[in-house]
Amino acid sequence: MTDTTAQTQLDPQIAQAPRDGASAAPIAVSCGEPAGIGPELIEAAWAELRGDLPLFWIGEPSHLPQTVPHALITDPAEALELCHRALPVLSLPMPGPRVPGTPQPAHAAGVVRAIEVGVSLTQSGQASALCTLPIHKQALAEGADFAYPGHTEFLAHLGGVDEVVMMLASDRLRVVPATIHIPLSEVPQALTAELLERRIRITHDALVAQFGISDPVIAVSGLNPHAGEGGRMGHEDHALIAPVIKRLRDEGLNLTGPLPADTMFHARARAGYDAAVCMYHDQALIPIKTLDFDEGVNVTLGLPFVRTSPDHGTAFDIAGAGLANPSSTLAALRMAARLGRS
After folding, report:
1. pLDDT tens across 34-59, in order?
2. With pLDDT > 70 as the criterion, what percentage of the chain qualifies?
3. 187-199: per-residue pLDDT in tens?
4. What class is the 2-164+294-340 domain?
5. Domain 172-291 belongs in CATH node 3.40.718.10
6. Alpha-carbon distance 56 to 64, whole Å?
7. CB neighbours of 136 closer than 8 A, spacing ≥ 6?
8. Which of 54, 113, 207, 314 is an S-S bond match for 26, by CB 3.0 to 4.6 Å?
9. Which residue spans of the chain are classified as CATH 3.40.718.10?
């Protein structure tokens, strides 16, 4: 059942002043790649949350699987009243049908536009946070000349900031990789004192401002086995990482490290810090995906708005089959709600 009593008119320059009580605003959810599992995830998430967590989805209504009732909206504020009985949909027309598993070039510009609209509504206060469903970078590049490496870089551009930090978070662990999608062989060259200091500062500031932790403890890993073991297993730990930690400690940041990565993530160790900054992708992501594979959330730190995302991709292989697990999307929406109230 779909309520089609309203048709959305999108202003290409959405930038209204924040409403009073913006903290009660709903969460904006951008559609992501229509050919992936995003349309299934938003319907499953709404069915689980209903009116407990007001949200609205931005995309082409015909791309939704129609397993739950929808209500078209023209203003995000309408979602507050409608979300208990139907999935609020801010219509963003796209040409052509959804073909599960097969991206359509004609949809690419609309996928990009959904992100832009979500950011505008969040920055204006009409949405409390933005949750982005997975995109497919190759499809966007081929269909819309999308030149950004991914969601994160595009969001930094839209937010007008030079640098953002990727955090993977769950109820058990928060991790930040200092370097991300580069070959392991390039990590020692990419890892500079300046880069590490910026990553730690952004992480610290976000833990205070968004997570509400007044004096966060940040554990910093070493790069080498046993954190270099006094130089016998590498020099970066004592020559590069340790001086950064000391300098920031002297400023008052509550840091520990450099720590051997193989002893940082057991339960007793995790109880001693609020987030871990690691030196490369797998060093950070293997622990959280082992602990909370289905409920890890991607949080972008350093933006002037709250953005979360499920920690998985488009899953073309199961799109349209009704097999998509909404756990990470539910966790991303719940975290967006918590952070959006800060």
Report:
1. 999 999 999 999 999 988 999 999 99
2. 93
3. 999 999 999 999 9
4. alpha beta
5. yes
6. 13
7. 33, 35, 36, 103, 313, 314, 316
8. 54
9. 2-164+294-340, 172-291
